[in-house]
Specification:
Number of domains: 1
CATH superfamily: ph1033 like domains
Number of strands: 7
Order of helices and strands: EHEHEEEEHHEH
CATH topology: ph1033 like fold
Distance between the termini: 22 Å
Number of helices: 5
CATH architecture: Roll
Helix content: 25-40%
Strand content: 25-35%
Structural class: alpha+beta
CATH class: Alpha Beta
Amino acid sequence: MACWLLKTEPEVYSWEELCSDGRTVWDGVTNNLALIHIRKVRKGDRALVYHTGGVRAVVGLARVASDPYADPKHCDPKLAVFDLEPEKALGRPVTLDEMKGRAELAGWDLFRLGRLSVVPVSAEQWKVVLGMGKAGGKK
């Protein structure tokens, strides 16, 4: 099982909407490196949902509900999507500034490649972020 960080603009599609919907197609990604990551996603993988914009924080945990597949909204076979389901909110959001302040997270692609919308998360990074967010909030 792999872990990922998925960025979303809360004004476009928020954590709260994912929880309300119960499941969504994670789409809209066109960056080549992010698409490479999407093609590596597998059903059962876990994800940190990160709000961009004015929030800039990890807000929830989700589970990948399908393997990647061609985006049905586009005729471009390079564009891949996957289904995502919410698990639970973090006990509190973990901000970008807080994460940047942790030595254990130094060098993470979240910081190095700031515009990348799908970022791999190592087991250590996952553990640190969950600890910071005291995972266990309500869905």
